[in-house]
Prior knowledge:
Rossmann fold; Beta-Lactamase; Helicase, Ruva Protein, domain 3; alpha/beta; 5-stranded parallel sheet
Amino acid sequence: MSEHGRKFELLADLGALIASEVELDALLAMFASRVATAMGADRATLWLVDGATGELRSGVATALDDELRLPAGRGLAGHVAATGAVVNLADAPGDPRWAPELDRKTGYQTRSVLAVPVVRAGAPIAVIQVLNKRGGAFTAADEEFAAVLAEQIARALEYTSLRSGPGGVAVRGRFNHVIGRSAAMRAIYDLVVRAAATDATVLVRGETGTGKGLIARAIHVNSARVDGPLVAVDCTTLPAGLVESELFGHERGAYTGADSRVIGKVEAAAGGTLFLDEIGELPLELQGKLLRFVQERRFERVGGRDSLEADVRLVAATNRDLAELVRAGQFRSDLYYRLRVVELELPPLRARADDIGDLADHFATLYARKYRRTDVRISDDARAALIAHPWPGNVRELEHAIERAVVLAPDGIIDEDALALADVDPPDEIESAPVRTTATRAAVGPIADVTLPGDLTLDEVERRWAREAVTRAGGNQSAAARALGISRNKLTRLLRG
């Protein structure tokens, strides 16, 4: 295929990605493997401008495994990000803007460079850098193609969890749609990368709404099986009498209504990953057959005699305590130990309060685009309420709260009232979580010096305490609620008496 044909095919494939739900991993994989080839060059790098720090991070570079970083304004890519200008050099090392430390770090020898800004809302959010044109320098036609490619990349980035904004992109997590930069999530990311490098069976544990399905997907797309299918099975929705058929398929005539052979989820996942969600709900009588498959990757269709094989990687997830189910005789111990070769335990949202802001911004951007709302932003009082809420429904509850607020906020400003958070009394273990800090209470001032009569009912004590908090907050009920460690809805009910 000619260079012109390769360029056209690359743009067409990028357009197909944008038309569907863009996966950042797929976008970067396409960039790494094909941009340099399409442009007749040796290497291509997509530098992302981190909106928080201004530094450039190599989202991907062909033939490189480690992420590279450049301080803001450093090197040719930094210059392009700072100025928005195109740079086309036949002898890059001879230019005063050149950053030689990158070649020293990678052992690469750069000669010619074409660097083009990826612009969104008038500001560069990334830089496409292509190195060492085969046969000479990059041409004006190369510049024109790179400019078109940059427009497509900008659109594609808008549909990933790298959201563009003033000064660059918000790098909110290591994997697409998995948001979080807290220490707890960084530990999870490390385990995901190590698990994805093997075919070991993985058990993902966590409360409902913590994102177990997204982690299963991250394991799949970062593994050697990324080109194979990811087949998810929700064990809670499988019909009791058809569980075996759903998993392993059935032959024609296996039972009344089985008019033809049907393959099961196991066969459908061949070459890829089988994700068994809520494995703790699987009927005990089927666990033995699943155990055989986990051990040998062999199975029989219902009504069949032939023993079949399926080359799949297994990821299971549960919100149940499987060890307790084993002790209660409700889950097979041998299956349990086979599933937990690698075990990941996702933290509840209340244990990763540092991520709530990033998650809220991500969902606000997502649903503002979905519902065609412009200038959506989250107010300071709403952010404080989000931090104070115990989130028993975890990330899923937060997502639904933000979606509702985006739809109902009349002027695009999401305030505490628009959130309409449910008044939930947190469980005991949440009381010590870092959501009601001394610094927050200090905004209202200490209220330990309130003197109350000794013959009051508990309801009256709570009511007077709430009124005193509002008084000391200057009438600001949101601040008073934060100081008391309760929701604004609950404070309102206390004041009504």
